[in-house]
DNA sequence: ACATTTACATGATGGGCATCATATTTAGAA
DNA sequence: TTCTAAATATGATGCCCATCATGTAAATGT
């Protein structure tokens, strides 16, 4: 049954939303096209009316979710605290798409890599803007170093099956970033 | 044809070596059992004589490769430089198994998670030992923060399809770690 | 109101892959 | 040397999945 233009647009949005959650939760490979469609409330048949392939879905989902990822207000410390919280670690499906999906990007199509690259570029720029008190070189270094440590810590914490060590990775990374920022700022 | 005990042990080692390279290069899902066996010089049939399942292979490969990963001498700065080099970024198959495989561990069996956890625990301890001049709290924080930033930076750099930005992530993370270590040491 | 287009459903199709069954050959024990 | 058990090879089996073919009904334009 055909649906209205706006219905179709909304359906497409729902598919992308659902796909982004499933992909973050289970990884690209472990999620089937049929599973995405079912979770969005459809059967698998309509899929190729919206996307030309699963790879296309992956690329478009990345563009969709990375565009939506606003990454907090202007307070870097609050953002870091939230990012390195057990709550974020335990909420991959609803958490940062970079932390959940970057590592898999290496094995994806050029379109997917390109979407992720642009997402990372703007994320780094965004973090840089939250450090107006630093001179440009310090700002850039801090933004990139911070971001690498944040993403790395969440990925490590999610891999570790010992809760104490996992918590410690988050906590110590937070402390490490904190001293890094403070000391540069105080110079 | 049956082979000698030692032959079999060597064959098993070769399978694990080859599997570790393939997994690091292409990810667990993208590598088939038959592909591993073929790369090791066998057909797929003998596989279940060595391992009870593909999941078992994954767990044993992790234990194997993480035990072998010695991670350099006592000079942390040299290790960081090497780790954050374009050469290491471009050599996933022969590079650090953590950088190549941690993110996927989340979706693997408990045995695999456990092997990775022990690998990470000893890696963090090892890095800590390269910082004897620091007091224990600083040492722990530095080891974990450093390691998170190193792993995160390599994962990010491998995902980014713009060579300039990818190089910059490595370079700036190296600088960020360097200032972090220097400033703590100089206190 | 009617014709046409189209969004989604149902139901193939074909390929890849993990795993199993069986055969073969040879190491190791007796 | 002979017998047995084990290591690997060859060849199924069955499942899951991406993609395609076709049907159906409703929306849009005339």
What would your notes on this structure say?
Two copies of one chain form a homodimer. By secondary structure, chain A is mainly α. Chain A has two domains: 5-65, Homeodomain-like (Arc Repressor Mutant, subunit A); 71-185, Tetracycline Repressor, domain 2 (Orthogonal Bundle), CATH 1.10.357. Helix content of chain A is 73%, strand content 0%. The first copy, chain A, contains ten helices and no strands. Chain A has helices spanning 5-26, 33-39, 47-50, 54-68, 76-83, 86-89, 97-105, 110-129, 136-159, 163-185. At the A-B interface, helix 7, helix 8, helix 9 and helix 10 of A face helix 7, helix 8, helix 9 and helix 10 of B. Chain A binds a DNA duplex (30 and 30 nucleotides) through helix 1 and helix 3.
State the main characteristics.
187 residues; Transcriptional regulator, TetR family (chains A, B); Arc Repressor Mutant, subunit A; DNA-binding; DNA binding (chains A, B); transcription regulation (chains A, B); elongated; mainly alpha; 2 domains; Tet_transcr_reg_TetR-rel_C_sf (chains A, B)
Set out the fold topology.
Two copies of one chain form a homodimer.
Chain A: H1 5-26, H2 33-39, H3 47-50, H4 54-68, H5 76-83, H6 86-89, H7 97-105, H8 110-129, H9 136-159, H10 163-185
The structure holds a DNA duplex (30 and 30 nucleotides).
Pfam family, one (chains A, B): TetR_C_13
Domain HTH tetR-type (chains A, B): 9-69
Keywords (chains A, B): DNA-binding, Transcription, Transcription regulation
């Amino acid at each position: 049954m055909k649906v209205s233009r706006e219905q179709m647009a909304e359906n497409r949005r729902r598919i992308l939303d659902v796909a982004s959650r499933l992909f973050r939760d289970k990884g690209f490979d472990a999620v089937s096209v049929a599973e995405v469609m079912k979770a969005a409330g459809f059967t698998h048949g309509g899929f190729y009316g919206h996307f030309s392939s699963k790879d296309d879905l992956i690329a478009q989902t990345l563009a969709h979710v990375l565009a939506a990822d606003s990454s907090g207000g202007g307070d870097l410390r609050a953002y870091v605290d939230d990012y390195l919280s057990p709550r974020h670690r335990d909420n991959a499906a609803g958490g940062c798409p970079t932390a959940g999906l970057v590592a898999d990007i290496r094995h994806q199509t050029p379109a997917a890599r390109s979407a992720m690259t642009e997402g990372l570029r703007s994320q780094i720029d965004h973090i840089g803007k939250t450090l107006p008190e630093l001179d440009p070189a310090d700002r850039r270094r801090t933004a990139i170093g911070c971001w690498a440590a944040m993403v790395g810590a969440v990925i490590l914490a999610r891999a570790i099956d010992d809760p104490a060590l996992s918590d410690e990775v988050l906590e110590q990374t937070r402390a490490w970033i904190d001293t890094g920022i403070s000391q540069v700022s105080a110079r």
